[in-house]
Specification:
elongated; five-stranded mixed sheet; 308 residues; alpha+beta
């Protein structure tokens, strides 16, 4: 519904609802902190929402100032239900024009709410808080030291020209990946299975927790022992960065394994003990040797700043 006014909320509402000449009158203008022109909704000079050529909307999930975050919250509230949120900084890194996106599938955003009795108590997850309260953060502001919530972006599968992309979160880490040309699928769920590089049987074992993952690496339990692995030609290493084995030119954070055996002739790597990475939860393979495999991703990007 059109709002004949120029408050920030009026402008955001009109961006999604106004038509014809009304879009030229109630759009905020050049002196407003929120404005729109054509398909772009801006907070100051930053695009916070884009209408795509296919008629959908995509909201910029990059976080900047407190004021811009408030403007983004208005865009989320007044946009069509379950409008995808993608960090535009990640799209820019992949040379992807947000206006060219065609969405194929989208999962819901998730919200988790936590409370504690005093500052010294542990956080306890609670249910029953309405999402519409969160947009104004009323629930959180009442007792900011005793209440908090965690918002995780939903995943979305989209197409640009003849290429397919997946936007998703891994814990609190955002990633955008370009799917390989042989991808054939229509759902986010199919994407997750595809990018794992695992067989259908192994993927079920991963979902059941038998196969463990840290970032792009999968650890498959075996009944091998150090004697048999060395007898086959394996070489033992301590505190080894398994990333270097799969990508020798990598200069990013290390996935450091306590114990590793590498069989160069068979192109196999096995690990046991702790696996540490600064952006992922430490995993402990204990004393069982695990075969290490890497996912099926060639190109990936992350956001340049914080993502909510």
């Amino acid at each position: 519904m059109l709002r004949r006014g120029n408050t920030n909320e009026d402008i955001v509402r009109n961006y999604f609802n106004a038509t014809g000449d009304e879009r030229k009158i109630y759009n905020g203008g050049i002196n407003s902190s929120v404005s729109f022109c054509g398909d772009e909704l801006k907070s100051y000079n930053m695009i916070i929402c884009m209408k795509t050529k296919s008629g959908d909307y995509v909201i910029n999930a990059d976080k900047y100032s407190v004021t811009t975050s408030c403007h983004q919250s208005l865009a989320i509230y007044h946009s069509p239900n379950n409008t995808p949120q993608i960090p535009f900084s990640a799209l820019n890194s992949g040379n992807i024009n947000s206006g060219d996106i065609q969405f194929i599938d989208k999962t819901l955003d998730t919200y988790e709410y936590f409370e504690r009795e005093t500052k010294e108590d542990i956080w306890i997850k609670i249910d029953g808080v309405k999402n519409d309260i969160i947009y104004g953060e009323v629930w959180k502001r009442e007792k900011p030291e005793l209440r908090r919530y965690i918002h995780s972006l939903g995943a979305c599968l989209f197409q640009v020209a003849h290429k397919y992309y997946l936007s998703s979160m891994d814990g609190n880490q955002y990633y955008l990946i370009e799917l390989n040309p042989d991808f054939r699928g229509y759902t986010v769920k199919e994407c997750y299975r595809y990018i794992s590089g695992l067989s259908f049987g192994d993927y079920e074992k991963y979902l059941d927790g038998e196969i463990i993952r840290q970032g792009e690496f999968f650890f498959k339990p075996t009944d091998r022992n150090i004697k048999s692995l060395k007898k086959d030609g394996g070489i033992f290493f301590k505190n080894f960065d398994i990333q270097k084995y799969f990508n020798p030119k990598n200069i990013g954070n290390q996935h450091k394994a306590r114990d590793v055996i590498i069989n160069i002739e068979k192109n196999e790597l096995y690990a046991r003990g702790s696996i540490r990475h600064p952006q992922h939860r430490m995993i402990n393979l204990k004393e069982a040797w695990h075969y290490v495999d890497i996912n099926n991703v060639s190109h990936s990007w992350t956001a340049s700043g914080n993502v909510d």
